[in-house]
Amino acid sequence: MSRLIGYWGRLCALFIISIMLILIGFILFKGLPTLELSLFFGDTAPLAAMMGLQPVWEGIWPACVGTLTVVLCAVSLASVPGIASGIWLASAPDKPAQKVFGLAVDILAGIPSILMGLFGFSLILLLRGSFFPQANASLLLASFCLALLILPYIACATQNALSSLPKQLSVTGAALGMTQWQVTYRLLLPQAKSGIMSGLMLAIGRAAEDTAVIMLTGAVANAGLPGGLLQRFEALPFTIFYYSAQYQSQQELNMAFGAALVLLILTSIIFALLAAIVRGRNRSKFGPVKSLIKERIC
Amino acid sequence: MLELLGQGKVEVVGHLKNVSIQFADTKILRDVNLQLLKGQLHMLTGPSGCGKTTLLRALNRLNDCFDKHEMSGSISLKLSEGDVDVHLLAHKHLPLLRRKVGMVFQIPNLLPGSIIDNLLLPLKVVAGLDLAHAMARCENVLIQVKLWDEVKDRLNHDASSLSGGQQQRLCLARTLALEPEILLLDEPTASLDPENTEVIEELLESLKQQYTMVMVSHCPAQTARLADKVFRLDGQQVISD
Amino acid sequence: MQSHKLTLKQNSWMQALLMTLVVTSGLLLFAVFCFLIWFSLPVFFTETTSVFSLKWQPEQGHFGILAMVFGTLSLAFISTSVAFIIALGLNSFCLLSRRRWLVALLRSLLRFMAAIPTVVYGLAALFLLLPLLRNGLQLGSGYSLFAAVCMLILLILPVICVMLDNITTPLWQQYALGAQALGFSPEQTYMQVILPHCRVNIGGAALLGFNRAIGDTMLPLMLAGNATQLPSGVFDAIRSLTAHIALVIATDQGGEAYNSLFASGILLLMCSACICLLSRYLMGRHRLEQPE
Q1: Residue C203 host element (H or E)
Q2: Pairing between β-strand B41-45 and β-strand B212-216 as defined by DSSP bridges
Q3: Cα gap C175→C182, rounded to integer Å
Q4: Does the pLDDT at position B82 exceed 90?
C-alpha cells in the first residue's frame, strides 16, 4: 500500500515539469517574436524616447521605466527601516515588545496584497477629507504602499540572518569592550550580509511583480514616463493586465506578451542573483539549503 | 575428546569474495575475502576510519542509501530461504534482506514515539503481524534483553525518556523481534558507560548460539571477551587472525 | 579618553536612530491595521444587514458580499486541497527518488515557480486554458471557478512544497537510515515513520498555502469571471473578495459601495491574521528549529 506513494510521487513530478514547460514555452513562443525595438518604443525614435524628448505611444518603455522607478522608490523607503527592525528583533528575541512586533510583522507579511492597496485608497480618502484635498493616486502613494508591503520581508530576512550567527560573536565583541552599536555594525552586519542581501532581492522581486497594490494607488495604462512623484505612472504588471483584458488589436496583445516576457526575464534575473547569493552563503557555511520562497519567512 | 572435536563441523553461512567498495572516488575497501561461520561472533577490529562500518553495512546493503556508492565482488549469505547473492539483489528485495540481517547502531537509533511504538511499528509494517501476535513477541523479546521489568509499567512513555543503556537494549530488542538470522553490531557499547557495557556484553554472549554475529569493536578487551573469530582491517584489506 | 566619550556618544546616537526607525515602521504597520478597522466600523454600526447578504446590485441599493465570500472560500478550499495532495507527492518524490539529478531539477523548478509573477500565470492561462475550456470542452465563456483554481494550484504549490521540504528533510536525515536498516522500504519509511510524526507541522504548511490562496487578487480577477452569484458547479463564474475590492475601486462607484469594500477588507484581514496565528502555532516548534 505504501508503494502507491512512490507511483503518485513520480506522476506528480512528471505532471509539474510538463505543465511548467508548457507554460514557460508558451510565454516564450508568444513573446520572443515581439522582442524588437518597436515593442519598447512604438513609432518613436529610441534615443529621443529614452531622453524623454518625445512621448511613446504603443510601446512598453514607459512601463519599464515606471516599474524600475516604483521599485527603486519602494526599496529605498523600506530598506533602512526594514533592516533596522530586523536588527532590533534579533537583538532580544524573547522580550515581549519584540515578540509583539515580530507577530505583527509576520501577520502583515501574509495578508492579501490588495489590502495594502485598500490602505492606500483609504489614505487618499482621509487626506481628501482633511488637510490635502488634492490627494490622489500617485507614484509617491504607490511607492509608499509597496514599501509597507515589502518591509516585513526585509525585516524577517535580516532577523533570520542575524539570529543564525553564533552567539559567541557578539559575546566576543562585548568582551573586547565594543559598544552595542559597534558590535552590530562591525561584527554582526558584515557576517549577515548575504542574508540581508537575499532579503533585499526577495523584496525587489516582490515589488516588481505586484499588481494589486499599484493598481489601486497610481498605475494606469497610458501615462507616459513617470512625470513626478505626484503623477500617475505606468508599470509592467499593470500593462500586462490591462492589455490582456482589453486589447483592441493584435499589436496590443503582442505588447502584453512582450511585457510578460520582459517581466519574466526581470524576475528570473533577480531569482538567479538570489540563488547565487544563497549558494555562496552555503559554500562558506556548509549549512542546509535555505528556502527562497516569498511567503516563508519569520 | 576427539569425538567432541569432530562433532563441531561448523557451517559457512556467509562468503565475501573480492569485495571492493568506494564512495565517489575514495576507495574504502579493496579485495576483501572472508567467511562467516554459523553461530559464531566475528569481530572486526582495526584503526578508526578504515572501513569497518562500511564492510558491516555491505552485508545488509545499507551502503546503497548513500550517494555515489560502488561495490564490486560478491557477497553470498546462507539464509533459511536458501543461498542469497546479496550483491545481486534488486532494490525491492532489500527490505526482506534487512529483516533477516538485523543491525544495531553505535548510537541508539530510536524511532519517534513511545517505547511500545518502537517495537510495534516494525512488527506491524515489516513483519506484517497483527496486534496480538506483535504484543506477545514484544514481551518475549523485552524479557530476553532483560528490559521487561524496567519498562513494563511505562510502555507508553516516550522512548527518549530511557537511559542510554536502556535505549540500546531497546534497539537490540527491536532488531531481535524481527527474528533475524544474522546480527550486525556496529560498536553497540561505544556510547555506554562500563556498567551498561557489561549488561550488553552478557546479552550478546547469551545470544551467541542462536545467531551468527558480526561485530565492530574498538576495545581490545571486549574483543578478547566476546570474539570467536577476529578479522583485522588494515589499509583497506582484511587480515584474519 | 576623548575618543572613548565620542564612541559612547556615537553608540547612543545610533541606538536612538535605530529605535526611531523601528518605532516609525511599527507605527506605520499599526496604521495599516487601524485604517482598515476604522473604515470598516461604519459597516457594523449602520445598515448591518445590507452588506451581509447574497445580493449585489448596486443600482438597486443591494450591497451584499456573501456571494464573494463564498467565492473566495470555494476557490481557496479547492485549490489548497488539491495543491496539498500534489505537494505530498512531490515531497515524497524528492525524498525517495534515486534519480538525484531529477530531484535537484525539481527543487530548482519549484523555487523558480515562486518567482514567476502572478500576472504572467494569468496571461498564460487566459490564452491557453480558457480557449481549451471554451472551444475544446464547450463550457461557455471559459471564465470560471475551475480556471482560477487550476492556476491558483500552480501558484500555491511552491509555498506548500518548500515548507514540506523544510519539515520532512531533517526528519528523513534523522530516521531514514535506522528505519531502512530495520527492513522498512523507503516508501514505508515515508508513510509510516516520517509523515505521522510531523502531522501537525504539515497542517501548518497547508494553512500557509490556504492563506496565499485567499489573498491572491490577479488570478481570480482575470480568470474567474467576476459574476456576483453563488456557483452551482465548478464551471460557473464567481467573484472573489479580492477581485471585488479591485473592481469596485477601479469602476469608481461612489460612497455606498465603499462600505462593502471595507467590509471585504476587514473580513480578509481577520481571516488572514487568524490563519497566520494558527499556522505559527501548529508549526511552532518547527519554526524555532529551522531558522529560515
Answers
A1: helix C199-215
A2: parallel
A3: 11
A4: no
Residues contacting residue C282 through CB under 8 Å, at least 6 positions apart: C200, C201, C203, C204, C207
CB contact under 8 A, A8 and C92: yes
Decide if C114 contacts A293 (C-beta within 8 A).
Answer: yes
Sketch the domain layout of chain C as residue ranges.
Answer: 1-45, 56-289
pLDDT at A293: 35
Between CA C14 and CA C213 the distance in angstroms is 41
How distant is the Cα of C245 from the closest Cα of chain A, in angstroms?
Answer: 8
Residues B29-47: tens digit of each pLDDT? 888 888 999 888 999 988 8
3-state DSSP assignment of residue C113: helix
> What is the rounded average pLDDT for all residues in chain C?
86
What is the sign of the dihedral through the CA atoms of C137, C139, C141 and C144?
A: negative
Please tell me the predicted confidence (pLDDT) of residue A14.
Answer: 95
Arch. (CATH architecture) of C56-289: Orthogonal Bundle (1.10)
Confidence of residue A237 (pLDDT cuts 50, 70, 90): very high
Round to the nearest angstrom and report the end-to-end CA distance of chain A: 37
Q: How far apart are CA A101 and CA A90, in angstroms?
A: 11
Q: Which residue of C has its CA nearest to A26?
A: C124
What are the Cα distances from residue C146, in Å, to C220, C233, C279? 10, 9, 27
The secondary structure of chain A, three-state, reads CCHHHHHHHHHHHHHHHHHHHHHHHHHHHHHHHHCCHHHHHCCCCHHHHHHCCCCCCCCCHHHHHHHHHHHHHHHHHHHHHHHHHHHHHHHCCCCHHHHHHHHHHHHHHHCCCHHHHHHHHHHHHHHHHCCCCCCCCCHHHHHHHHHHHHHHHHHHHHHHHHHCCCHHHHHHHHHCCCCHHHHHHHHHHHHCHHHHHHHHHHHHHHHHHCCHHHHHHCECCCCCCCCCCCCCECCHHHHHHHHHHCCCCHHHHHHHHHHHHHHHHHHHHHHHHHHHHHHHHHHHHCCCCCCCCCCCCC
Phi, psi of A167 (to 5 degrees): -60, -30
**DSSP annotation of B111:** P
Cell numbers given for C199: 502531522
What pLDDT, on the 0 to 100 scale, is given for residue A287? 40
- Provide, for chain B, the percentages of residues in helix, strand and coil under a 3-state DSSP scheme, each rounded to the nearest 5: 40, 30, 30
> Domain extents for chain A?
60-297
Q: At what angle do helices A236-245 and A61-91 cross, to 10 degrees?
A: 130
Distance CA A235, CA A221 (A): 8
Cβ-nearest to A164 among C275, C280, C292:
C292
Contact between chains at B67 and C100 (C-beta distance less than 8 A): yes
* Residue A54: predicted pLDDT: 76
Instruction: Flag whether residue C11 sits within 8 Å of chain B, measured between CB atoms.
Output: no
How many CB contacts within 8 angstroms connect chain B with chain C?
59
Mutation site for C-interface testing, chosen from A101, A136, A156, A181 by largest number of C Cβ within 10 Å: A181
- Least CB–CB distance from A5: residue in C28, C92, C269: C92
Summarize pLDDT for A7-53 with one digit per residue, the tens.
Answer: 999 999 999 999 999 999 999 999 998 888 888 887 777 777 777 77
CB atoms within 10 A of CB A222: 13
Q: How far is CA C5 from the centre of its chain?
A: 51
Three-state SS at C252: coil
The kind and range of the H/E element at B216 are: strand B212-216
Q: Classify A60-297 by CATH class.
A: mainly alpha
Residue A224, sorted as left (phi over 0), alpha (psi -120 to 50) or beta, turns out to be left
